[in-house]
Structure formats: structure tokens, C-alpha cells
Amino acid sequence: MTVHNTTKTDPAPGIGRRTMLKATVAATAAPMVLTPRRTEAQVVVLPPSPPTTPWVEELPLQDTPLQALDSLTPSPTMLANSGGGEIGRVEHQRYFDLCGPGSRSNVDAKFYELKVKQNPSWRFNGNNAYYPPQAIWGYEGDARGVITPGPTIHATYGQPILCRIRNELPANHQGFGSPEICTHLHNLHTPSESDGFTGDYYSATKFGPTLTGAGSFNDHFYPNMYAGIDEFGGIGDYREALGTLFYHDHTEGVTAPNVLRGLAGRYNLYDHLDTGNETTGLRLPSGPYDYPLTFGDRRFDVNGQLTFDQLNPEGVMGDKIIVNGKIEPVLRVARRKYRFRLLNSGPTRFYEIYLQNKGRNGVFTFTQIANDGNLLPNPLTNQVQVRIAPAERADIVIDFARFPIGTELFLVNQLVQTSTRRPEKVQAPGTQMLKLIVDRNPPEPDTSQVPSALRPLRALPSAAELAALPVRKFNFQRSGGMWAINEQFFNVYQPRASIPMGSGEIWELSNFDDGWQHPIHIHFEEGRILSKTVNGVAVPIPPNERGRKDVYVVGENMVVRVFLRFRDFKGKYLMHCHNLTHEDHSMMLRWDIV
Ligand SMILES: [Cu+2]
């Protein structure tokens, strides 16, 4: 099965890529429609993935950041370097205002390069014969080769980055996924043309409807400026910092299968508070003790091959959970504090994560310090669980000093979920996802800390100011066998909101169905949840959702009101469900800053 069209560019205005996919479905298979509310009779029941061999494959002791390059060849250009192989993008916005001597940052951009390639022989579960070496897609940045998740980029506020992303995927690819790429850095404050807009996908011979030409690479300009550069001057408002970000494919109509094949990686952003050095700033656990954990649900066929059905608007529920690309891996830790940056990379499963003992009859506490990549104003201590929907992040600090050497612990998921539509219930003891072995004393004293104040939160506008703001209402629903927003499917050309740059608005996100939940992601700036109601009755906003967020889980019969600002850059951006199957099956819209 192939899903990309054979012409050079994708469909003409008014005909979305989704329409093409639907046409392909009609031509090749029985049309699939969503089942009626409350029934799941038509959900395809797949055989379980083959048996795994747990707790054999070891994760690296530390996460090695990607090194910057001295130069890129060909040299980066302001306008697209079409002759040099770059895609037909528009000029970088505000480049010399933000970057270079005399600019706001006063420094030149650092250069990075990632090559998106196929790795022909990835092993998901060590030497387990049920899971043979198989092709995955990943990012190559250094001698580690093509890996998934891709190499972590360590960035700093005030130090712009120019990241070249090359597409070297096999053009003749067969099976799920499509070898055009489009990379979104979730949720950096990024100029539109570098944001990985879903129509900006490319390969050497094909290009999406919002580009003007094909190319083998795209230079993404990541200013690493706080939101509010116009409002506050300098490099913006430090209260708007993000710390835990991730990059992932965002190609229109095939985001789920492309991410499933491996196209996601991490991006940590530091500043004077969250310094990446535990002797300075907030002194959070850093270096080898600042560790990303990327979770994803996957389904394998009887031959142990990764499988997916990208034409089914229900998606496929993964029954195996990968952690940093591996099923049931082991991480050896020292007796000290660690910062774990938890990410749900999807496509569809929700997690409620606990730290459990080996006997499976007890859980231990941890401290949550960040939600969706944003440090909370104050840490939440003595937590026993944290829930993350697709694309949500949670940074937690676990102190292993309280455990003797030899202790074995597990991160478990106690959220039961049997369909792609929503999690069902919390049930102990849950599914063990990662084994942690406390195997050594740290070589040096643990000088890290979790201070009682982390990052200040800007006060919300007054009630009177909020009452004067425009309110936009978006209802997330099923429609015509697909997923829709306000009865409309995604149209890459149609801005569903045009917002003056610098303004603030209230967006009301609703879901009046009772069969599914939608983790809604709004690109560009973080928002603040003002209220949540279920069946019209106000419900509390959980403490970990009272800071800034970029993913808002809209549960059944729920309305979530969010305050957002739209500052500093112009152009096209996205809002979509981050259940990647819902996104691909059209629960997405374009909005513009003008
Ligand atoms: Cu959804």
C-alpha cells in the first residue's frame, strides 16, 4: 500500500491530502467508519504482540546531547537555497533582529544537522527471536547512527539555533508511513516557517501544498527566545520558559505512522534558572542525572514486525510500550536524585505512571517539577502518580538515596486502556514499563536540590480584562466517520482564525461526546487553563495543570477554557488533537497570526 500521490505536488487547493487518502481507502479496502457512541463492536481486534523478554536490554547510563557543528554545507541562507537543495520555504522572520552581533541575542546561531534515515536493523527487545531486527526511521546526528528517539539537542535561551533537517528516507518506501517529512519542535516559540506546519512536508522530489518547491533539506530557525520579545524587549519574558520539548514528524495525514516508525526526539532548553548545572541556578539534578524517558505504544504482528493501520480512523492500540525505543528496558541508577523528563510520544495510549517496588505491592513518592515542559511555580512533593496523555510531558525528581544498593524498582502504568478512544480505569498493579536498578553510590556528593520555588508564573489578566477578551469556541467531535472540529475537517489552506499579533484570547475547547478523550495541542504559546466543566458543572483544575500548558485533555462532556497570547511572529500555525490518529483523520485546524 502506498499513500503518497504520484504527482510532484500534493492536491490542488480545496482537495486535502486526507481526501486523497480516503480515495485510496475506497479503492483498496472496505471503507471504515467509526462505531456508534458507546459501542465498540466494529473496533478491529488484533492478535496480541509476541512474547517479550523483559529487563534484558539496558538503556545508556546517561543521555548524550548532540554536538553543534562549526559549519553547514551549503551555508545557510535567509531565502531558501533552492539551488543547493533546500525546500521552497519563505524567508526566515526576524532573523537579524534575533540573531547575530548587535541583535537581541548578540550571538550567531549555533548549527545542528539531523539526517532522517532508515535504520534497517533496529531491535526492540534485545536478542528476543520473536522480535527480529527490522527497519525503523530515526535521526542521525553523530556516530550513534540512526536512532529513535533521535539525539537530544541541549539548547539555551538567548542562543539561537539553525537546525538543518535532511530527508534521506528511501523514496520507494512501501507499507505504513510516507517518506516525506515535516518536523515540528513542540512547543518552541518558533516563527511559522520553521514550525513544521503540516503542509510543509518534503522530500527531494515531492513537496506539500504550503511549500513552493521540493528539496532534500529544510533549515529550521529556532530563536530560543522567550515569548514576549515585543512586550518585554530583550529576549522576552523569562517566566515563559520551556524546558522539556520534543521534535516529531508532522506530515499531513501520516503523522501517526511516521512517528510510529520512529520520528521523534528530544530538545532540552535551559536558562539562568534551569541551567543544566546543579551547582548554579535552581540546582536541579543535571548532567547524567537529567534523563529523558520517551514512552510510546506499539503493536507487532505474529512475525514481530511493527504494524499499523493508517487508513482506520480508530487507529491501532499498541499493546507493547516502548521506553526510549525499547520494550521493557533496564536503567541502572546511582543512589541520588534524578530528574526524569517523561514524555508520551503516542500515538494514542494514555499513561498513569507510578514508581513501584519489586514485590508489586507498594509505590514510592516523587516530586513533580514541570508539566508540558514548563517548570511549575512550586514543586508538587510526595506525589505517587502522574498522568500523561499523548504529547503531555511531566518532569519528576526521584531520590534514589533512600534505597540500598541492589534495590529494584519499576515505573508502571496503572491506566487500563483497551481502545484508542480513551483510558478506562486505574487498576493496580499495572504494566511494568521500565526497570530501575539502584546499583552504585554516586562518584561525587549529590549537591542537587528541588527548591520550594521554581519558575514564577505571570499573574492572569484581571477578571474584567478577561471578560473583555474575544472567545473562540471549538468543539471536538466525530463527524462523517472521521474526527472533526466544529463539523469541519482539516483544510491546509483555510485559516479558521486570524488573530492580530500581540493580542490575547480565550479559547473554549469542548467535547460533548461520551466515548472518547482528546488531548488538544495548540502550537506556539503556552496557555493557562481558566476553568473546566463536566456536564456544565465546574470541576477542579488539578494542581499540576495550574501552570502553563500546551496540551489540554478535553475529557468526555467537558469544556476547558484556556487563556492564550499570540506574540512576536506571524504566519500559519495549528491546533489539533494529539491522539495522532485523530489528527491524521482530520481533527486539526489552521489558525494564523496576522
Ligand atoms: Cu482526539
Characterization of this structure:
This protein has 594 residues and is mainly β. It is built from six helices and 35 strands. The strands form six sheets. Strands 10, 11, 12, 13, 15, 18, 19 and 21 form an eight-stranded mixed beta sheet that branches. Strands 24, 25, 27, 29, 30, 31 and 33 form a seven-stranded mixed beta sheet that branches. The longest helix has 12 residues, at 17-28. The radius of gyration is 23 Å and the shape is globular. The structure holds copper (II) ion. Copper (II) ion is lined by residues 518, 577, 579, 582, 587.
Layout of secondary structure:
Blueprint: H1 17-28, H2 95-98, E1 110-122, E2 134-140, E3 146-147, E4 150-156, E5 161-167, E6 183-186, E7 217-222, H3 229-232, E8 244-249, H4 255-260, E9 264-270, E10 290-300, E11 306-307, E12 320-323, E13 326-327, E14 330-334, E15 337-344, E16 351-357, E17 363-364, E18 366-371, E19 374-383, E20 386-388, E21 393-399, E22 408-416, E23 425-440, H5 463-467, E24 471-479, E25 482-485, E26 495-499, E27 503-511, E28 518-522, E29 527-534, E30 537-539, E31 548-549, E32 551-554, E33 558-566, E34 571-577, H6 580-584, E35 588-593
Parallel strand pairs: 1-5, 4-9, 10-15, 14-23, 24-27, 26-35
Antiparallel strand pairs: 1-2, 2-3, 5-7, 6-8, 8-9, 10-11, 10-12, 12-13, 15-21, 16-17, 16-20, 16-22, 18-19, 18-21, 22-23, 24-25, 27-33, 28-32, 28-34, 29-30, 29-31, 29-33, 34-35
Bound molecules: copper (II) ion.
